[in-house]
Amino acid sequence: MSGFPTLLYKELVRFWKVAFQTVAAPVLTALLYLVVFAHALEGRVSVYDGVSYTAFLLPGLVMMSVLQNAFANSSSSLIQSKITGNVVFLLLPPISYLEFFAAYLAAAMVRGLVVGGAVLAVTAPLVPLPLAQPAWVLGFALLGSAILGALGVIAGLWADKFDQLAAFQNFVIMPLTFLSGVFYSIHSLPAFWQALSHFNPFFYMIDGFRYGFFGRSDVSPMASLAVVATCFAALALAALALLRSGYKLRG
Amino acid sequence: MTAAVEIRQVAKRYGALQALADVSFEIAEGEFFGLLGPNGAGKTTLISVIAGLVRADAGTVRVLGADVVADYRRARRLLGVVPQELVFDPFFSVRETLRFQSGYFGLRGNDAWIDEIMHYLDLTAKADTNMRALSGGMKRRVLVAQALVHRPRVIVLDEPTAGVDVELRQGLWQFVRRLNRDGHTIVLTTHYLEEAEQLCARIAMLKAGRVVTLDSTRNLLDTFSGLQLKLSVDRFALPVVDGVSVLASQGERFTVRLRDYVALEALLHSLREAGAEIREFELAPPDLEEVFLRVMRGGEAAEAERGALA
């Protein structure tokens, strides 16, 4: 039998054992964003016709939670194992690089989806949301968490220290998420910033995800899907190439 | 017969450092084999190449015929490695750690064997204790247990007794000896030369990435090491005798090296002939430390280095 199911299970148990920190805390963060931004901006920011700002904001926050937690799971698990040295227990058994990647990816996706689902569940009684195209919601949630899970694997392999990983998170992930249209529709931006946003892959993840709820989006959901799927393929191949070469794992 | 471990022309370089250079040897199945050498000689690198943790720049390694790169799945199933560093996963208890390790090898329902290993390693009482709460010695035992979950036929221990107290060390060796008696091949690196001398039937010595000597422990002791004699007599000089060299003298006290027991005979004979009276006499048998130092110094008298090693 393969070592994959055990590695996946281990990765799930790892974050679930500290769920207060890995699930409850990000849910609270998302709620705070929702309360503060909705209070400050409701009625002042125009989004889609007939859609309240709070309702518009919520899917953005859900997706942001999915993305950030998927990234945090694979990256922090890998760097912890590297720094404590216990990654050796995964390198000695007959686990292929493909199984290794699949386990970290799947666990990251689960964590992202659990946190995103929890944010939705907690806010459901407060903010009524339509659900125009559930399949798109699910599709973008899966792809988005997969992209960030794969990126987390790459960052976790690359970083030698926790502060390098924190830098990656603060200087790459955070700006890309905040400037992706979580809090606004990019149509409200000046032309230059609107054009620039089109180079941000996070924009397509959020926009496509939002389409699933409202049936409306800034760009066509098919275009978003194409961008997001391409991003995932590229990052997955990059992560697999690193793992295959033994980058920073097998000297 | 297929060798337990077959190492062929293995080389590994880290930047300017040649960690391993053209290393070739075989370890037969069922052997208790020692890998000795000073720090930085390449022992851990070699073990890492065998375990697939490090990729060699050149050469091949097979474990019971399975190439560690091309046929890594089979090779890793046959091999159990106890790493040198005291590593653990702080999220889990001892039993969880061992269950996960079994699962990584694709084993399900391995609890009977896990219980047995924990029993032999005296871990049963700590089965549900979190790894973080264990003492260093206990963590070391868990490392040994982790290496055994998949019942490997070849077991590699990389300095398993570094920083381990005497009692645990004895218990560990008893257990490893048992595994060897049951037919497991044991490969051991250690800094404690007396351990290697007691346990290993054959020894390879590494220096600067090369195998400088490889022989049975018995032969090494016979070939390289002589006897060391401390004596004091009622004179200031000893007669010149073939096979006897004076290493140090202080007044009437001498430390001499004897090539063998024949040389001892000859020395005693000359002293008797000269009418000398022996006041103190202390003969030390050959030991591996002596061999080790001589090999590492390229055959020079190792006496000066004696203190440095300990």
Walk me through this protein's architecture.
- The complex is a heterodimer of chains A (251) and B (310).
- Chain A is built from 10 helices and no strands.
- Chain A is an all-alpha fold.
- Chain A has one domain.
- The longest helix of chain A has 32 residues, at 53-84.
- The radius of gyration of chain A is 18 Å and the shape is globular.
- Chain A starts with a helix and ends in a 6-residue tail after the last helix.
- In chain A, 49% of the residues are buried.
- The mean pLDDT of chain A is 95.
- Chain B is α/β, with parallel strands linked by helices.
- Chain B folds into 2 domains: 5-221, P-loop containing nucleotide triphosphate hydrolases (Rossmann fold), CATH 3.40.50.300; 226-285, 2-Layer Sandwich (Alpha-Beta Plaits), CATH 3.30.70.
- In chain B, 35% of the residues lie in helices and 28% in strands.
- Chain B contains 11 helices and 14 strands.
- Chain B has helices at 43-51, 72-78, 94-104, 111-120, 136-148, 166-181, 193-199, 217-224, 261-273, 288-296, 306-309; strands spanning 5-14, 17-27, 32-36, 58-63, 66-67, 79-82, 154-158, 185-189, 202-207, 210-216, 227-233, 244-250, 253-258, 278-284.
- At the A-B interface, helix 1 and helix 4 of A face helix 2 and helix 3 of B.
Features:
heterodimer; A: 251 residues; mainly alpha; B: 310 residues; alpha/beta; Rossmann fold; Alpha-Beta Plaits; six-stranded mixed beta sheet; four-stranded antiparallel beta sheet; 14 strands
Shape of chain B: elongated
Largest sheet descriptor of chain B: 6 strands, mixed
Name the largest protein-protein interface in this structure.
A-B, 28 and 34 residues
What level of helicity do the residues of chain B show? 25-40%
State the CATH topology of the largest domain in chain B: Rossmann fold
* Distance between the ends of chain B: 39 Å
**Which structural class best describes the helix and strand composition of chain A?**
mainly alpha
Oligomer: heterodimer
Q: What share of the residues of chain B does DSSP label as strand, in percent?
A: 25-35%
Question: How many strand elements of chain B?
Answer: 14
